[in-house]
Amino acid sequence: MMPEICRSSAPRRLDQGFTLIEVLAVIVILGVLAAMVIPAISSVRARGHAVACMSNLRQVGLGMELYLQENRGYYPEIYGKGTEPTKTWMWKLGPYLDFPENAMGPSPLAKAAGVFVCPDPSFNRKTRNASYAYNVAIDWSPWFYRKSAVPEPRKTFLVVEADVNSDYFSPFATADVSRRHPGHTANFLFVDGHVEALSQTIPATDTRWRWGN
């Protein structure tokens, strides 16, 4: 008489290593970890974009200083006049930022390139020509203005993040500053060269927009 074979009631193991329940438990744990890690990674990336954007504006500020040194302290016009209407302020800063002369295209709305492009993915490069805009409120006029005439350089905006199909920014227009970064902030380059991330809405009447008294 053949001996009776004892059948175990223990859960069947897959590949002689893990039970089906163990595999499912691992999948659940991995899902929970992914749900925790992915938002954290996104947050780190967003902060990285904001820091890179600030670096862009600092470089723009350095380029502006080099331009001033070679132009008797005068800021560039927002766009050219007469025979050079297409040479925007970005075009004029190009040589000081190691850009080829035609890098941004001969257009009133400069093709964004290099440090003029915010790395944040929310910037729509298909419809927006530039990430940053020039503050044209130079004593209520967009034309020649000297840095030495700015009464409070550390309190006056020079270049701001904007979401307009243009390369200059007027605080009197309906276009708004673009707040692309964590905390609903936008980066501002000031006349003295420092960059700040500001979250509050800044009205057109704010003295930081105005260069003159």
Automatic annotation (TrEMBL):
Keywords, in A-Z order: Membrane, Methylation, Transmembrane, Transmembrane helix
Keyword Mitochondrion annotated: no
Protein name per Swiss-Prot or TrEMBL: Prepilin-type N-terminal cleavage/methylation domain-containing protein
Coiled-coil regions, chain positions: none
Biological process annotations from GO: protein secretion by the type II secretion system
Membrane-spanning segments: 20-41
Lineage: Bacteria, Pseudomonadati, Verrucomicrobiota, Terrimicrobiia, Terrimicrobiales
Keyword Transmembrane included in the entry's annotation: yes
